[in-house]
Task: inverse folding
């Protein structure tokens, strides 16, 4: 086995949090095309992303705001399916060891078959799954299968989680996705939630890194968040660049990611 | 396995942001459902405002014409606002008010549930916003105006396919943004736990009354109860008190649209597969790697790609049977009841009626069928005219 191969098999989500504060970027697979997804993921890595979330498009993305809803529609218009995303990741893995996480509503995973899905994840070194409609209480749906194939289930903690925070954090793996605001994904001018107190509760029960997402789009916001969390997640702002630039988004994405990563690097 | 299960179906597959709200709703509901004062208040509203109990009407002419089983119609069409929807809405709005909520939101397809919610909100002095797909606002412009008359704000949904399921999506999105003062009045026995249970309980008054009324009229239980099924609230309400009476056959009728062999139907049990969507595990019309399929029916109220989890369970254990009726069959039944009994049924309920017409003739004269007429058909007159190629101006 070559060194490169060894390294591939050892990619872990925690690696994303070793290079200062982590910058986590998101895009929807297949938007605008599956070929461009490969190019844009690599551009995000080049720009300084420490971990990348790739969304599997879904017909009814209930937790998404307008920007990511439109990206889902663009991807589905091209008939992007789960196997296309896996094929794209296979290509990405030929060039990159960046930790990768799939963001998907649970129905496409259920439909694909849990065993088949997570087996594929392991083969391609996909390190985690985030499912916005699979809360802590329904985790058993996939827990055993995900564990069998070493795929971390990323837990979400919301502004309304209150006494649930410690329960969720205690059982978390990979990283903890702290939802910054009420509502759906999308760029916000202000984040009002008391994130400090949520993260304090989390840290009391676990050492797993925390990353804050929902609404973050400016370097200033990112810098502020990076002072209290281990990572910053940006989705809609990147998807918005793709929406604007279509097939020519690689450079603007790279520039944007660079700017954001700089903002959170001391 | 988590709470709120009906066999493998049901559950709480929804954003973490809403979980505490759902847990609280469950707790409050479990308290108030046994609270004497709450029940007195609700019953007073049902009896003195909505017009309950609704009649169980013997359809003498259709019985004689079809030449078999005696056909009774459970007249939910006679309720205030013209459908069974008001039963659930009064219950949920009163509960929301007790919980300290000042605002209710709801999804609507044809507008029946939206109108009912706007009505209850007006009565209980609550702020109200209704989510309705852009396509449906065009088809049902009269209902949009009706809801506005009642003081509700109608939010035109322009996302996705711009119909009922998208209205549900946007209502959830709104609720995730604002749970503090807002209750989401889900209109059917669907969604995350505890909604399928709450809606079923509030609708079960239909079956309670059927049992009481038929025993009084006939001295025995019916052989068969038939109701139409979209999400399934009028059917669940009709069936629930008969589940233990194994001799009573329960039949749900789905919308077969232009035919089960076409892509234009909403027959979830007949053509769907198990999936997880809108907060629940159940059967859904889906395909292409688990994308939710667009569905079609002449009836906007049955035009939903899923079915309530308790129906899926009753199907799995074979306690209820699910069949379907096409647009053509429903329109024929719509006209038949209008001619024969002077009752214009909702196009949704006409699906149940169509199945009753299929089976009544083969049953004995001593047999009894109860068909739930979930709503009245005034709202459908223009659509039926269009279906027959007649252009009406309202």
Result:
């Amino acid at each position: 086995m070559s060194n490169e191969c060894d390294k591939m098999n050892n990619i872990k989500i925690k690696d994303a949090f070793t290079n200062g504060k982590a910058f986590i970027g998101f895009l929807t697979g297949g938007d605008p095309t599956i070929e461009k997804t490969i190019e844009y993921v690599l551009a995000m890595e080049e720009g300084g992303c420490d971990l990348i979330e790739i969304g599997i498009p879904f017909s009814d993305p209930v937790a998404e705001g307008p920007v990511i809803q439109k990206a889902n529609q663009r991807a589905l218009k091209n008939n992007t399916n789960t196997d296309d995303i896996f094929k794209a990741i296979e290509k990405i893995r030929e060039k990159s060891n960046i930790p990768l996480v799939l963001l998907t509503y649970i129905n496409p995973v259920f439909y694909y078959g849990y065993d088949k899905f997570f087996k594929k994840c392991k083969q391609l070194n996909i390190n985690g799954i985030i499912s916005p409609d699979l809360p802590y209480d329904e985790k058993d749906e996939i827990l055993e299968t995900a564990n069998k194939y070493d795929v971390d289930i990323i837990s979400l903690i919301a502004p309304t989680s209150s006494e649930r925070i410690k329960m969720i954090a205690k059982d978390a793996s990979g990283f903890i996705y702290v939802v910054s605001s009420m509502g759906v994904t999308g760029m916000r001018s202000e984040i009002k939630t008391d994130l400090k107190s949520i993260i304090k509760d989390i840290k009391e029960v676990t050492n797993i890194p925390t990353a804050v997402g929902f609404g973050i789009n400016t370097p200033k916001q990112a810098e502020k968040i990076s002072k209290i969390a281990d990572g910053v997640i940006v989705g809609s702002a990147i998807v918005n660049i793709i929406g604007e630039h279509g097939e020519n988004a690689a450079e603007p994405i790279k520039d944007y990611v660079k700017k954001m990563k700089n903002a959170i690097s001391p | 396995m988590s709470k709120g299960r009906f066999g493998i179906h049901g559950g709480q597959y929804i954003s973490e942001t809403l979980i505490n709200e759902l847990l609280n709703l469950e707790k409050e509901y479990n308290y108030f459902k046994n609270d004497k004062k709450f029940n007195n208040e609700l019953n007073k509203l049902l009896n003195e405002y909505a017009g309950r109990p609704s009649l169980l009407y013997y359809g003498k002419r259709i019985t004689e014409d079809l030449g078999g089983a005696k056909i009774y119609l459970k007249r939910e069409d006679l309720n205030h606002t013209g459908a069974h929807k008001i039963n659930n809405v009064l219950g949920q709005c009163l509960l929301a008010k007790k919980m300290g909520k000042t605002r209710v939101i709801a999804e609507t397809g044809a507008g029946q549930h939206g109108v009912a919610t706007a009505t209850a909100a007006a009565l209980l002095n609550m702020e109200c916003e209704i989510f309705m797909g852009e396509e449906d606002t065009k088809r049902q412009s009269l209902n949009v105006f009706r809801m506005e008359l009642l003081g509700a704000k109608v939010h035109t949904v322009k996302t996705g396919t711009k119909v009922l399921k998208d209205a549900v999506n946007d209502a959830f999105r709104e609720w995730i943004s604002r749970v503090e003062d807002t209750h989401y009045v889900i209109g059917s026995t669907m969604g995350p736990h505890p909604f399928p249970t709450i809606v079923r309980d509030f609708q079960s008054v239909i079956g309670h009354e059927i049992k009481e009324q038929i025993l009084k009229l006939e001295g025995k239980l019916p052989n068969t109860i038939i109701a139409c099924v979209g999400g399934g609230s009028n059917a669940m309400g009709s069936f629930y008190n008969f589940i233990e009476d194994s001799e009573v056959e329960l039949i749900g009728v789905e919308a077969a649209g232009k035919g089960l062999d076409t892509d234009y139907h909403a027959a979830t049990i007949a053509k769907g597969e198990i999936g997880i969507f809108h907060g629940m595990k159940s059967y859904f019309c889906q395909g292409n790697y688990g994308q939710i399929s667009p569905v079609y029916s002449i009836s906007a109220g049955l035009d939903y790609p899923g079915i309530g989890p308790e129906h899926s369970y009753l199907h799995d254990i074979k306690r209820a049977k699910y069949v379907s009726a096409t647009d053509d069959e429903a329109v024929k039944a719509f006209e038949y009841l209008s001619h024969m009994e002077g009752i214009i049924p909702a196009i949704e309920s006409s699906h149940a009626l169509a199945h009753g017409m299929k089976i009544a003739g083969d049953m004995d004269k001593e047999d009894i069928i109860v068909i739930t007429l979930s709503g009245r058909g005034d709202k459908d007159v223009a659509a039926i005219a269009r279906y027959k190629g007649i252009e009406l101006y309202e």
In short: The mean pLDDT of chain B is 96. The radius of gyration of chain B is 19 Å.
